[in-house]
Amino acid sequence: MFYSFGMRCILFIFFVVCSFPGALAIEVSFSAEDGGESVGISDDYEVSTGVSVSEESEAKFGDVEMTNTREVAGDGNVRMKQIYSGDKYTGWSLIGIYGSQIDVNNEARLTPTTLDASQSVSVPSNDNTYLYLGSVNNGNGAETVVWSYDGQVSTIQTIASDNKNANAMITGSLSGTNCHVETGAFWPVTETVDRLAEIMVGGNTNEVEYISIGNFKGAARASSEKLESHQIVDSFKISGSPATDYGYIDTFYVDRNWLEGHWGTWSWSQTWWWSNTWSGRTNVGIGKVYFPPAGTVGSYDLSAMSYPPYCDITKTG
Amino acid sequence: MHKLAYITMLLALISSAYSASWSGSVKTDSDSWSINRESSNLSFIYEQSVQGQISPVDYRGRTLSPYHSYYKDVNVNDVRLKERTAALQGSYSSMELLSLKSSINNSVNMTIVKPAGSDVYTIDFYERWPVKLSYSKNMTYSGKEINNREFVGNNKDYVGANFLYNHEFSEDRSLKMNLLRMNATILATDEAIDLAEVKATRDTQYRLQSHSTGIANFEWRQVGTDDEILNAGDERYVGTYDIVKNMHMKSRFDTIQKEDEWLPCCSGGFFSMTPADQRPFKSAKGIFDCTCYTPPKKALL
Does A56 touch chain B if contact means CB atoms closer than 8 Å? Predict the structure, then answer.
């Protein structure tokens, strides 16, 4: 039984829920203010006994700023959330891992109007991993998302945002029975605005064979003028049965609410699935989804843009 | 003619008064702890001399009652000085000199550490925002009545002196308060906060020589790292008294030692202990140090 986009949505929500610290967690916050400008970092940790945590923050005053580094390493369960806040932005690092030899390194530099943060994660063997790093700065949002079941993760995510633009980048490699890499630029949902330019690459096998996504590089950028997202995947390999396993490569610019409401009605194909124009709730969306057949290897150059609307998949391998 | 002659010199200097603050908090499933600190790059010098008669004044066809009031509030990074004085008709003289300097040039740091094998988080906040305050004042009053209240506080240590319903009153007071640094340590698990200590390295010297004819009340307190009262006093004198006081409260805490020194003669053990168990020993040296042991030259009976 193949997993539809609706099922992917459910899996995604499952990962998000799993990544947030639950009932047993410790929350530590640290904030600084000077001359009416402020920055702050809030941490939530829920980690196994076998996991070590080492975090340092430094707040400087005058032109107030804060720097943060942390390393989380060990075996077991890691569920943690780090929220960055300034006068014009909020940023999130969400990490949920169950695995061994986990090594997570975060760095961040916050000023009242700018945020630079990175997240480097290595999990040689995981049951599941979910990683998110994103920010919304002055109404412009950019994010990257990764997940993997039963495989390996090696990624570096970064965000860099100032008072005009939000940028998110990701590089790395993934493998597992269920993998996903996502870059997205968006404007947060309001009554009149709900747009994103997003790329998702991933796949699901029947928990026997593997998806591997090698040497991917992605970037998303949001400004008040446009949203754009780009990914290059050097190697996208699906090792499984055509009857049960699938990969997906899609780019879209669309009205998100309309799209999400229709995910459950989609069906599967091994070829270019659709390229169409929709009439959405308030906007027109264009998207392309490509399902490479199981047992294939390919490389791809993907892009999505909003204003002007554009999305494309180029198969380069 | 009643005449109020006052203020021979007043000089106040305020510079670079940028107010900055930081806050930290720890929340578990059952407990929470928080701290808020505020200071600035500030210098302030205040000199005053007053001598005169508190007496009625004719103003637009009516007579204003003879009255003197005085209000002072200083609060920089929990280094505090409060004074309230109210006096009726009589002779009054005072001289005072206040000097205050504070700095926020140093950064404030926070660390979170949880070793593998332990469920205990050690959270440290470290601040080096020094404050230095010196204050001297002498006052003499003779007349219908004077009430004088004063309070000095230094990061939860305090001294309070109240002189009420005095006809004759004089005091000669000096105060020096220093705050060097503050670090707070919290040991917590997901379930609860096991320990929360606030360690401000501070110093308060308070000297007083007074003559009072009403009620004199003194109160002081010095607290430990967990706000526990280490020493405290409460005194009340009704009548005519000459009182001399000299108090010195000092709390000093070493800065955070992040790494243990090399084990002197033994190995293992300390690092495998949980932070809660490590705490009484402070470092591996506290348990295993053999270097300070000198064998006795003669056997002890």
Answer: yes
- The stretches in chain B having pLDDT less than 50 are 1-16, 258-268, 285-293, 300-301
Dist CA B186 CA B176 (whole Å):
30
Is residue A16 pLDDT above 50, yes or no?
A: no
- Given the structure tokens 């057949």, which residue do they identify? A293
Q: Tell whether A81 is within 8 A of chain B (Cβ).
A: no
Measured between CA atoms, how close is B138 to chain A, in angstroms?
A: 37
User: Do A25 and B29 count as a contact with CB atoms less than 8 A apart?
Assistant: yes
Q: Where are the domains of chain A?
A: 5-315
Least confident stretch, A64-73, A271-280, A291-300? A271-280
Place of tokens 């630029």: A185
- CB-CB under 8 Å, A74 with B22: no
A26 and B28: CB-CB below 8 Å? Answer: yes
pTM equals: 0.81
Please tell me if residue A25 touches chain B, with a CB cutoff of 8 Å.
Answer: yes
Q: How does residue A68 score in pLDDT terms, banded at 50, 70 and 90?
A: very high
> What are the angstrom distances between the C-alpha of A124 and each of A53, A54, A79, A173, A210?
19, 21, 17, 11, 15
Question: What is the tens place of the pLDDT at every residue in B245-276?
Answer: 999 999 998 765 544 444 444 444 555 555 55
| A176 touches A234 (CB < 8 A) | no
Q: Is the peptide bond before A242 cis (omega within 30 degrees of 0)?
A: no
Tell me the average pLDDT across A267-277.
36
Residue numbers of B between 18 and 57 with CB closer than 8 Å to A: 18-29
How many CB atoms neighbour CB B17 within 10 A? 12
At B8, list the tokens. Answer: 């021979």
Give the closest residue to B112 by CA, choosing from A58, A56, A29: A56
A22 Cβ under 8 Å from any chain B Cβ = no
| Predicted confidence (pLDDT) per residue in A206-222, tens digit | 767 788 999 999 999 99
Kindly list the residues from chain A whose CB atom is less than 8 angstroms away from the CB atom of residue B28.
25-27
